[in-house]
Amino acid sequence: MEKDTFTFHSRLAFPAQEVFDWHMRPGAIERLTPAWTRIEVNRRARRLGEGSLIELTTRIGPFKQHRLLERLELQPGRRFCDIQLEGPYPYWKHDQRFIPQDSGGCRTEDRLDYLIPYGRAGMRLAGGKIRKNLELVFEYRQAILARDLETHRRIVEIAGRRFKVLVTGSSGMIGRALVNFLASGGHTVIRLVRSREPASEGALYWDPAAGVLSRAGLEGLDAVVHLAGENIAAGRWTKKRMARLIASRLDSTRLLGETLKKLAHPPEVFLCASACGYYGDRGAEILDEEGDPGEGFLAGLASQWEAAAASAGPPGIRVVNLRFGMVLSPSGGALAALLPLFRLGAGGRLGNGKQYVSWISMEDALHAMAQALVEKSLRGPVNLVSPGAVTNSEFAGTLAHVLKRPALLPAPAPALKIALGRMAEEMLLSGCRVRPAKLEAGGFKFAHPELEAALRFLLGR
């Protein structure tokens, strides 16, 4: 049976060898795989080479579809192929070439040869959809690759080297994405994990509740990114749970700070998570980093966490409090929770919908953190939000529009309060209109300043 072929060409302002090397590193496959494809990387070599196996799983509703690829025909700096050994396609071969240009950059050529299951019937039913999906996937890959290469080059130009970064919270949505982003850029990443038998290289054990963290393996760090903390939205805020939410953040931050102080060569920068909940419920007031703290549990939690971070580490360490807004990703967080309802046409505003949502795309959040790693003028609180905050009604309407669904079923405030209690009042029915003043002053370029474009990129729409 005749194979179908898909090709994609692009030009990059980076040498072929540099682009090739990026593709060989851990995290590269994850970076190039859009979350909206629902493809997960289960297993791959730490550094990909000739004969390396790549195990993937695609989620289709409640089912999982297995794929196994092998990397072959590798020509260093110029070419490699990923060939399906097991999976849904009778034949699948992805040939990737990197062609040097006189300008110093390179031209990339991707060629996919594949057979669709069920022959001509499969081609008639799914051929057009598969080709359209491939176009969206490769446009996404091109955008990710070009921006990642630019950001990592800037880090090296400013710092004079690639970084060695300690990351906590690496199993969370933001932490996983950050580890892949840094590793694919050639930086050394050490993950602090709570398993006594780390499953992979580059992981060290710690137990913040018990005060356990060894200095072994932490010397020579350039930076620490502290994202660990119990999930705020994982259940009702009972008194015991609120105490755990506080302790999980403060205990871990203090332990890190005490350990860093004992290092012979401590890191230069400490990035610590916080949240725009610091500002409390402020209506339509436009807030920058100079804004006063608000009232409520979230505001108090953020204030305590930032105070603990400020005193962490040795004297002179640059501390940055990452005040995250709603980080948008279909792989987790608020957006992932909303998608099933909105896809069914059962979504709508929360309460009266007038509360503001300060949000940021996952990609902009990653690159903003990279800027905070090297930009010495960034210290203290930094708002990680897009410049395009919207009301909850606008958010619901835009998401429904992107998904081509109605947004006609609002969630009444009384029902949310009954179901979720105080968490509903502070997380769902309250909001703040936050501006990324420090990022803008530092020249940060948002890829997704507007909500609709961000959602279309993240959801493949």
TrEMBL record:
Kindly give the Pfam families that the UniProt entry links to this protein: DUF1731 (PF08338), Epimerase (PF01370)
InterPro entries associated with the record: DUF1731, Epimerase_deHydtase, NAD(P)-bd_dom_sf, SDR39U1, START-like_dom_sf
Q: Where is the NAD-dependent epimerase/dehydratase domain?
A: 165-375
Please state every residue range assigned to the domain named DUF1731: 411-457
Q: Which intervals of the chain form a coiled coil?
A: none
Q: Where does the source fall among the domains of life?
A: Bacteria
Q: Which PANTHER family match?
A: EPIMERASE FAMILY PROTEIN SDR39U1 (PTHR11092:SF0), SUGAR NUCLEOTIDE EPIMERASE RELATED (PTHR11092)
Task: Return the similarity comment.
Answer: Belongs to the NAD(P)-dependent epimerase/dehydratase family. SDR39U1 subfamily.
What is the protein named?
TIGR01777 family protein
Q: Which organism is it from?
A: Candidatus Glassbacteria bacterium GWA2_58_10
What is the taxonomic lineage of the source species?
Answer: Bacteria, Candidatus Glassiibacteriota
